[in-house]
Write the structure tokens for this entry.
Amino acid sequence: MGKHIPVSPETYRPRSVLLLQEQLTQTILDYIDRTGLTNLEISVMIRRKYSTFRACYLREMRSGTLLGVSRLLCICEALGIFPVFQIVQTQRLQIAMSEAA
């Protein structure tokens, strides 16, 4: 018999969740690259606050795998990154804010 692979149907995944995952992943990887720390040093730093962290998460993130929002936020907080979110109600408002910046 084959190996059991649990399936969780994702018929709809909000675009905002995907954008948040991508942005958090990029922020974490940028921080790691900027500090110049090795994966081992980063892993030790993260494990102090997030004990179930595995070093393979960094490899997965670099290869393009999107980890869950909760896991990404735990990694951010363990690294000393505190994301602040902004809610934009309409696309028109979002366009106006982008043009103003």
